[in-house]
């Protein structure tokens, strides 16, 4: 299918139309329109809102970040953060019916984050909310249509002078990734993370049987750790009126976590986080946790549960308490809570690999952060620079790992001493 798209500005609207070529089936009835989110009427009574919500509810793989209420709560925040780069709603219609949606939100990325060597530069672009398109189930497996959606989005990014379209968490065995690989000769791709192991727990029909996968020695170790930390208590956060206090506590913990030391402050306790967690709580999808010791919060887990999947969104513990293993203690208590109450089918540990994730998981897959870039001379030069930088970074890491220095440094940074977990 020839999917090269052109973008035309629509008269009197802050929107653009992507002209649709013929599909593989010989049809020419796909129309894609990009509309600035701040210009849309997203009241629940509007047709845009209702058609968007119907598509969300009908898509079995819909991500919480693709819900119209979630997006609408963040429009003003993104507008304040990125006044020159508004977010856009990408609507794909077939015979006047809405069959797919993409939410493009503004994103700035520092070349240091992308493992670039030398002076840091900030690149403007967009990220695809939910790491996928909301799409009608009948066409969701059609990789030619997914390729067309991707290329239309990239053409739009180029029209807006955006350097990239970011898919922050791309799962390897998905139609979207297959479409990216098949269409990679028509745009540029770069992943600064590469595909990494991703850990999942598939809870058995009798969820109590989950513990039977562990050897008796491991089960005894779990029980011993919980006995040693029996004075700690866990608080489950699910209600809107708990969100403010939870964010305050998680922010304080995050200030002294290894994640913040290595990756930057994880929980900022800002307006965006407040809106996001409040939305989840209002929908009944928030399921986060705090670990308390002597009424002091020492570890947290930000999580949500939707359609049988528990998503581990963020985690941290206070390094001052690393010696008593607060992270593993909290995880054990969370697993017990999930097994005893409203057990999900799947626990998704989220992006990034870690030994403890693999230890508690029952399945491994892969995911990565993926940048898609319009195929321009500037982007080809940029990609060459980034790939060369990443090669050097990977080489240095391999040398450090071979010498044993890398593991020692990571343990010191994360836990304050060697030999800890």
From TrEMBL:
Residues 213-358 form the BioF2-like acetyltransferase domain. Pfam families: Acetyltransf_6. This is Mig-14.
């Amino acid at each position: 299918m020839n999917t090269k798209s052109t973008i035309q500005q629509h008269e009197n609207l802050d929107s653009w139309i992507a002209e649709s070529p013929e599909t593989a089936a010989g049809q020419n009835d796909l129309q894609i329109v990009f509309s600035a989110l701040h210009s849309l009427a997203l009241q629940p009574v509007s047709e845009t809102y209702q058609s968007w919500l119907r598509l969300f509810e009908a898509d079995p793989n819909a991500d919480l970040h693709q819900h119209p209420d979630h997006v609408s709560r963040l429009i003003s925040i993104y507008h304040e953060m990125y006044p020159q780069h508004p977010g856009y709603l990408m609507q794909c219609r077939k015979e006047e019916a809405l069959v797919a949606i993409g939410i493009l939100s503004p994103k700035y990325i520092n070349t240091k984050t992308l493992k670039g060597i030398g002076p840091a530069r900030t690149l403007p672009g967009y990220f695809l909310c939910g790491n996928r398109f909301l799409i009608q189930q009948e066409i969701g497996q059609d990789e030619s249509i997914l390729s067309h959606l991707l290329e239309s989005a990239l053409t739009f990014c180029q029209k807006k002078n955006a350097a990239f379209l970011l898919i922050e968490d791309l799962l390897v065995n998905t139609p979207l990734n297959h479409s990216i690989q098949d269409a990679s000769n028509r745009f540029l791709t770069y992943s600064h993370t590469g595909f990494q192991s991703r850990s999942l727990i598939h809870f058995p029909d009798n969820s109590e049987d989950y513990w039977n996968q562990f050897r008796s020695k491991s089960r005894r170790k779990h029980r011993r750790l919980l006995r040693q930390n029996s004075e700690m208590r866990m608080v489950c956060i699910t209600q809107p009126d708990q969100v403010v206090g939870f964010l305050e506590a998680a922010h304080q913990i995050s200030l002294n976590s290894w994640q913040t030391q290595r990756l930057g402050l994880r929980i900022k306790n800002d307006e965006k986080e407040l809106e996001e967690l409040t939305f989840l709580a209002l929908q009944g999808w928030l399921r986060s946790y705090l670990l308390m010791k002597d009424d002091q919060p020492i570890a947290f887990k930000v999580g949500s549960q939707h359609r049988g999947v528990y998503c581990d969104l963020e985690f941290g513990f206070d390094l001052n308490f690393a010696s008593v293993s607060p992270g593993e203690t909290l995880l054990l208590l969370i697993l017990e809570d999930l097994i005893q109450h409203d057990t999900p089918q799947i626990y998704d540990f989220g992006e990034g690999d870690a030994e403890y994730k693999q230890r508690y998981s029952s399945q491994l897959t892969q995911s990565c952060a993926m940048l898609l870039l319009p195929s321009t001379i500037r982007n080809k030069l940029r990609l060459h620079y980034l790939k060369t930088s990443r090669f050097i970074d990977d080489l240095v890491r391999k040398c450090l790992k071979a010498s044993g220095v890398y593991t020692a440094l990571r343990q010191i940074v994360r836990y304050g001493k060697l030999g800890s977990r």
